[in-house]
Amino acid sequence: MTAELVRGQNHTLPQTRLEIRVSAGTPVVAGATLGDENGTVRGTEWIAHPGSPQLPGLEVSRQAAADHRLAVDLDALPAQVHRVTVLLALPTGVGGPVRFGAVASPFVAVTGLDGTEIATFTLTGLDTESAVAALELYRRQGAWKVRAVGQGYAGGLDVMLADQGLPRAAELARSIQDAVTRAMARSVAPPPPRAPDADRVAPGAGAPGPVPPPDGRRPAPQPPEPLAEPAAPPTATTGGPINYAHPRRQSTAPPPPPPTAPPAEPGRPAQPVAGDATGWSMDERLYNQIWGMFEDLARTTAAYRSAVDFAESRMDQELDRTLSDPRSRIGGAGDRAREQARAKRDELTARAREALDRDLAQLAAESAVVEPALPAAFAGWDNPVWHAYRVPMEIPMALRIGDLHLPENPGLHIPLLVRLPLERGMWIDSGRTTSDAAALMDSARLRTLAMESAVAHAARLLAVYPADEFSVHVIDPAGSAAGALAPLVRSGALAGPPASGAGGVSSVLARLTRRVDLVQMAIRAGAADSLPPDLDTGEQLLIVNDFPHGFDDRAVTQLRYLADEGPSVGVHLMMVADREDASAYGPVLDPLWRSLLRVTPVADDHLADPWVGHAWTYEPPRMPPGSRVLEEVLAKVAAARRPRRP
User: Fold this and answer.
1) Tens-place pLDDT, residues 260-316
2) How far apart are alpha carbons 516 and 568 in whole angstroms?
3) φ/ψ of residue 263, rounded to 5
4) Cα end-to-end span (Å), the chain
5) Burial 244-276 (b: 16+ CB within 10 A, else e)
6) What is the DSSP letter of 183?
């Protein structure tokens, strides 16, 4: 049975030797890009286009045509490839249409070699776009799926290629259009029959790909696109490549193969396995698997919402056509038409919900397997891994700062991970938000919860860093957070007592700004060994409570400086503040808020993803009722630090 996909919907591929047929009604350029586990195109050798139509496992046509047939053999793709994105573009310089809105909607079908349709997708809703990513074939938990994308680009082919991470995209786009203009036409034949397994070359053998670094380490993958505030673009991941150059990281041997799921019974989905993703280590595989779950939840929810909107729109159109005829308003014809339109709407909605529930059930099963297998840095406070906690010897690749969920399934939580070392500070909003949870609390309770959340985040950072490689400082001008800070103070994990009063605020800010200045100067001069012996070069975190009360203009300027310049040299800022309280400073503080990742002490749907713009509900980390895990972890951190201090 053919799956008729809508934008964002996916479908499992039952076979790996396929044809992708394109029907556009006007000549278009068809091509395909290969992406790694993060969707990044590593170079021009990973693109099949009219000027270079063949890659291992992939072949496209050399000309612009109204109909195309692309040949794909997924098993023959290079081992590093995890996505195949099919691209369509209007040819330039030939006097044809310049936007897809002026032509019939392109139709794409994924078929077997015998022509049997597996999935189809009609690219509706295009207007000024002259290039579009039609669909993608992607690997998920050892199986290949097809996803309807339909992402258009008004800027054309070069913008689309640049969006996939390709350098010098404009130059390649020009060469593709030149190849089309030269009419290098050749039809594409189906893939040749495979040789027996004993004679077949291993998939990916001899395929083009990036040359590994001379030390044998795997090139660092780019993380997924970050979450962002809807009104401004702060990210929830810290971005940037993974640093594999840690002096204690052993990475000269190839990674062990990821675990594979046991074979599924016919008609049933494969059983999920923790770590069933690509990566150099188990932590990296779990990290990539979590982001894969996040993206799958975003896409399947977008497909459901799109299908529901389509069903409602279709019903409205049918009712408008029916009621526009005066004859249908008399008698039972109008009533029957309305009933039929609503029945069709309900049928389409039910089918969409059925597909959503199937995908949600699979993700819930995967979450149930992944959550218990997470290391301490990725785990919630209720995970038993904390009972066996030991101070680590090296910095993990990421840290969990909460959970995310969508209203379609509030019980399915996806861990929200940020990369380490941190590349931006955090702002814990202690003011009233639009969430129901915040609306039911008074201001004093919200401020207390915000400071307790800051302590929990600081404790996790202390716990995942090696001893004496991370220090926490606290500014509490009025001493109002003594209760929330008690776990940090009693354990002795703080670098010093919380600073209060004007003198304490000035001293801490002066010390940290001096550290930033000295380290920056040493880096620029290439003289790291010239730093003063009393300077702590480990990572530093400054928690600032009750801002802006008790801060003068000089202190505000220093905080902005730390927020902007500190992360690059290991000084990070965690503000606990209500933005409305700082309104007296006017727009001078806007850059400060924009430079920080905003999180809340109560559940709030203030984060948006870059794929489909969902409003994700952020859930802050919670301690289990009656648990002493925070105190026990901080005690071990403090015990590991004391012997090293003079």
Assistant:
1) 555 555 555 567 888 888 777 889 889 999 988 998 898 889 889 888 988 888 888
2) 9
3) -60, 140
4) 73
5) beeeebebeeeeeebeebeeeeeeebbbbbbbb
6) T
